[in-house]
């Protein structure tokens, strides 16, 4: 078992403990570390990670957890590391939720957002099926198809506005305030589910309590993808919902009614803040080292498993 997974096994006890750890891992300054510094941190952890607890070892753990893939042991691309997810995707999320004047701007921002999200999902998946870290042709086609579909579907509110604006004012209100909420959640979940579908089809490695590989399970793969799908839907759905609910309340205030120009910046700032706060929350909803009971695994594991439950790397 990779040292990163061993650390999650020891420190992944509750939602609050995961949340505190993710706030540390998501420090954007960690992405500035060089490859040599990351390798030195890994060497330090192999020699002293389980023997000593000091600031140097703690910093090494954070650097390893944020930069090294737990399945392959290779470095995650700096563009798709967890600590840069907020700086890169937050502007894209804000722009994608804007009330654009035309369909083309909506398609442009949706394309950028879903392209990055698909890349992030792929880079941080469980890589049991691709331990050589190479992307298969099928996986490439899945990613391309996912980006194309989610881009077009994400622009659906703007398409409805352009088509039905003259027919009904209710349609305009629905397209701007209501539809983006379930749509954002569903498209985020769809991206994870399709990009990481190979985990359910081919299975992922499961470990015993001592970290020894027991085999590859499709049931564990399905569970890992399902949990990540729900966490990503929570992230994007909440980000779309909270600013709209806040604006509904603010529009009743006399100050806002006298100064309607404030609504736009309030929407943008609120979206960015909610998204930033929800990232560690959504990442913490489920353990990185998930558990699955023996009876929920395939028959081949019933005789091999020495305990009632096994462990798997959920991915991000």
Give your account of this protein's structure.
The chain has 316 residues and is α+β, with helices and mostly antiparallel strands. It is 65% helix and 6% strand. The protein is built from 15 helices and four strands. Strands 2-1-4-3 form a four-stranded antiparallel beta sheet. Strand 1 and strand 2 form a beta hairpin. Helix 12 runs antiparallel to helix 14. The radius of gyration is 21 Å and the shape is globular. The model has no long low-confidence stretch (mean pLDDT 87).
Descriptive key words:
single chain, 316 residues, alpha+beta, four-stranded antiparallel sheet, 65% helix, 6% strand, globular
What is the fold's blueprint, element by element?
Blueprint: H1 3-11, H2 15-25, H3 35-48, H4 55-67, H5 85-96, H6 103-123, H7 137-154, H8 156-164, H9 169-178, H10 180-195, H11 197-202, E1 204-207, E2 213-217, H12 218-250, H13 254-258, H14 263-284, E3 289-293, H15 300-304, E4 309-313
Antiparallel strand pairs: 1-2, 1-4, 3-4
Helix pairs in contact: 2-14, 3-4, 5-6, 5-14, 6-7, 6-10, 7-10, 8-9, 10-12, 12-14
């Amino acid at each position: 078992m990779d040292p990163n997974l061993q650390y999650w096994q020891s420190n992944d006890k509750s939602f609050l403990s995961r949340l505190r750890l993710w706030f540390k891992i998501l420090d954007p300054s960690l992405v500035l570390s060089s490859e040599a510094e990351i390798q030195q941190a890994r060497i330090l952890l192999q020699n002293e990670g389980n023997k000593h607890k000091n600031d140097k070892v703690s910093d090494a753990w954070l650097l390893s957890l944020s930069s090294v893939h737990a399945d392959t042991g290779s470095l995650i691309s700096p563009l798709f590391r967890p600590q840069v997810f907020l700086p890169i995707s937050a502007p894209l999320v804000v722009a994608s939720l804007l009330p654009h004047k035309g369909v083309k701007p909506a398609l442009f921002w949706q394309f950028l957002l879903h392209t990055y999200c698909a890349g992030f999902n792929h880079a941080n998946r469980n890589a049991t099926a691709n331990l050589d870290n190479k992307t298969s042709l099928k996986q490439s086609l899945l990613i391309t198809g996912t980006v194309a579909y989610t881009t077009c579907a994400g622009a659906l509110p703007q398409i409805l506005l352009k088509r039905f604006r003259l027919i009904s004012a209710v349609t305009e209100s629905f397209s701007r305030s209501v539809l983006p909420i379930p749509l954002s959640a569903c498209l985020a979940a769809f991206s994870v589910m399709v990009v990481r579908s190979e985990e359910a089809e081919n299975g992922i490695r499961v470990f015993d309590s001592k970290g020894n590989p027991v085999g590859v399970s499709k049931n564990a793969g399905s569970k890992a993808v399902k949990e990540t799908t729900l966490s990503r839907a929570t992230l994007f759905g909440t980000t779309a919902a909270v600013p709209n609910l806040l604006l509904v309340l603010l529009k009743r205030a006399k100050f806002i009614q006298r100064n309607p120009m404030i609504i736009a910046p309030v929407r943008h700032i609120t979206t960015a803040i909610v998204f930033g706060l929800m990232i560690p929350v959504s990442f913490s909803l489920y353990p990185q080292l998930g558990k699955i009971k023996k009876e929920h695994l395939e028959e081949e594991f019933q005789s091999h498993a020495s305990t009632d439950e096994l462990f798997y790397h959920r991915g991000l």
